[in-house]
Amino acid sequence: MQLSFSTYYTLLCAALVLLVGKFLVQRIRFLRDFNIPEPVAGGLLAAALIYALHEFTGYSLAFNTDLQTGFMLMFFASIGLSANFAKLREGGAGLVLFLVIISLFILVQNGVGIGLAAAMGLDPLIGLIAGSVTLVGGHGTAGAWGVVLENEHGVQGAVTLGIACATFGLVIGGLIGGPIAKGLVTRFQLKAIAGTPAAAVAAPGDLNFENPQQVRLITTSAAIETLALFAACLGFAEFMTGFTRGTALQLPTFVWALGAGVVLRNALDYLFNFQVFDRAIDLFGNVSLSVYLAIALLSLKLWELSGLAAPLMVILLAQTVTMALYAVFVTFRVMGKNYDAAVLAAGHCGFGMGATPTAIANMQAITNQYGPSHKAFLIVPMVGAFFIDIINAAMIQLFIRFLP
Fold first, then answer.
1. How far apart are CA 20 and CA 12, in angstroms?
2. What stretches pass through the bilayer (predicted)?
3. Residue 278 near residue 289 (C-beta atoms within 8 A)
4. Planar angle of CA 102, 108, 110, nearest 5 degrees
């Protein structure tokens, strides 16, 4: 038997999940140490309770998805609206080189996932889910592409599978980054560049999306202007989804929302000299992601994962080894084989398997012990906060299009 929840009750349940998640993260050190997001902590508990309800009583819960879709689109629009191309110039050649390294890693990660899935007789799309969709992409991208893969490609339980992989990656990304960088620093006797002031290291609160608890001073006018920007992105995304349906340009709606944000932000910056209020965009983006994840996790059907547990663990363990080897033999060496490169390798492990906050935590663990790395703290947040999401979305679309 199925119990259905209306829009209002779905929002109420999502709010309860977020409050419970906040309580759990505050009380459980493991969750804090590995930067587990509050929506994930509360949502996984709720999903476990819903699973127990289904197993012992036969009841299942159905939540309204209209709000989930809307908040998902707002989150991806916020990524686009934060993509100021002027920051690329600030990062210089090092940022571009790091982008190339990460882009190549996405190809490797998806190749490992798809190859192992095919070898074990699974749908190759499951390997893609256990690749950059969830590991580089994180929970937001996992849920967004999961809906697409479920509805358009028939991958049953794609959202559930994606959230599980993203959570695994989040923990593993925090476990391997620090030890790898520490090993590189010790082996090659690396030292921080002399004269780099500690103040040059960016505080997590100064970085887009890195600290959702950071106080942001926002006026009513700024909030209204920001809502107008989001509405424009979502309206454009809905129009383009319908306009391109059935054509070679057909893309998921959230990709159009992200792209609209990029174009709109930079058009306002360079053509109209209009200063977009980044603090409001960050706030709305973080709130949207939290509510979206809460609803997505409430909707998890964990019983759909029972037959995939063992093959999925094989793929994820292989991805962990691949990430570690790539960070040591590619990221570290190509970025200069110096102290900054070692810190960048730690950061790459963080968002290559988990999320940008995990990358920041990995780098801080190294810089707190061995000294600051201004280059790493300049490059990683900009790449991890939005540029990599744009590249990842394009690559995922290409993989889906050409997979049999």
1. 12
2. 6-24, 36-54, 66-86, 93-119, 125-149, 161-181, 249-268, 280-300, 312-335, 341-364, 376-400
3. no
4. 105
- The two structure tokens encoding residue 383: 């790449």
The b/e string for 18-31 (b: 16+ C-beta within 10 A; e otherwise) is bebbbebbeeeeeb
Q: Say how far apart CA 28 and CA 312 lie, in whole Å.
A: 27
Instruction: Give the type of residue at 107.
Output: L
- Joined tokens for residue 60: 């299942």
Contact (Cβ atoms closer than 8 angstroms) between residue 133 and residue 164: no
User: How is residue 267 written in tokens?
Assistant: 């058009």
Q: How far apart are CA 109 and CA 395, in angstroms?
A: 11
DSSP class per residue in 14-44: HHHHHHHHHHHHHH-HHHHHTT--HHHHHHH
Q: Looking at this protein, which amino acid is placed at residue 91?
A: G
pTM over 0.70: yes
Interacting residues of 308 by C-beta distance below 8 A, sequence separation 6+: 122, 126, 157, 161
Question: For 316-345, what is the mean pLDDT?
Answer: 95
Whole-number pLDDT of residue 36: 67
Rounded CA-CA distance 133/140 in Å is 9
Q: Are 258 and 76 in contact (CB under 8 A)?
A: yes
Contact 389, 141 (CB under 8 A): yes
Q: What residue type is assigned to position 327 of the chain?
A: A
Whether the pLDDT of residue 200 is over 60: the answer is no
Per-residue model confidence (pLDDT) at position 169: 87
Task: Point out which residues pair with 62 in neighbouring strands.
Answer: 4
pLDDT digits (tens, 9 = 90+) for 3-28: 888 889 999 999 999 999 899 988 98
C-alpha 188/C-alpha 341 separation (Å) is 12
The Cα–Cα gap between 321 and 314 comes to: 11
Count how many Cα atoms sit within 13 Å of the Cα of residue 148 in the half-sphere of its side chain. Answer: 23
Three-state helix/strand/coil letters over 205-257: HHCCCCCCCCCCCCCHHHHHHHHHHHHHHHHHHHHHHHHCCCCCCCCCHHHHH
> Do the Cβ atoms of 166 and 300 come closer than 8 Å?
no
Under 8 Å between Cβ of 62 and 45: no
